[in-house]
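Hey, can you fold this?
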Amino acid sequence: MPQLEDNSRLQTKRQKRRKAWFLNIFIGIVLLAAVTVAYQTFFATPTVQEQAPKKEVTKKEEPKKEQKMKKEISSEKPESKPKEKVIENPAPVVEDQKVQVPESQSPGVAEAYTNPSWKPIGTAQSEPHVTKFDSSSQDWKEMTQAISYALDIPADTLTILFLGNNGPNKAIGTVQAKDTKERFKVYIEWVEGQGWQPTLVHKLM
């Protein structure tokens, strides 16, 4: 009988120990889970939140980088060359050095004169020169400029009555001033590489 009681006591103690052991394990698991949850709550979440602003910063920085790249590319583009402007040679200044030429006067001529200061007016044409009596040609334009230069009267205030051939590389033009109605006959000749030059003016009656 005493042995049976001892055995029952031992079994009871063992059962209590097992229960305590299982209880301790369960408590340990619960505590571990609680610690894990607490760690994730207080430590893992802030790291995610901290990463989000970094992405925003990089997004904000990207446009700045793109702008720098665009500026560098634009600076590397070859500069456009300015268009060349065709500048016409202005007519030389006429000095008042008229020289009367009485022997060249003929009926209908009120005055005949030349001027030693007359020079070729310049040209945009190339050699060999071919005289063109076409009102739309560059040669015609330069001939009218030479006549205007000899008379010292603007070309747009002159009416061209006649402009024709007067020999090899020579021309003769008859014009009328629009304001005074005065008429002139102007003799011009071509100077190679330099353009038309006046040689004689007849002021008509």
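Oh, and this one too while you're at it.
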Amino acid sequence: MALAYVPLMVLAALAIVACLRLVSADSDVHAAAAAAARQASLARTPATAVAAGTDAAAATLQGRNMTCQPHTTTIAAGEMTPGGIVSATVVCTVHLEDLFGLGLPGTVTLSGTSSQPVDRFIGVSP
């Protein structure tokens, strides 16, 4: 009688693992957005902010246990005035077969956004 519940328990365990892997991947995308915003906020010009933020997001996503292809990083640098706000958005398309390891078809799109204040002492000589 108790053996009849074993397939249901295995299915429930697989569903829990799948949900945890999805939450972990979403957390990785949010971490990449936070790193991108932080690096962009330290730049002196909008062009270097975009480059630094994009590089930081790519470096953060590179070491993770998911295939995030394609991913886009959008940096809203504005005027880069001291005390201003820089925002970064990372959008990542993850293949379910890579995420869960079960050969599931399809993809899921994850996104994360973060904002950081521009360094107030940017451009100030010591």
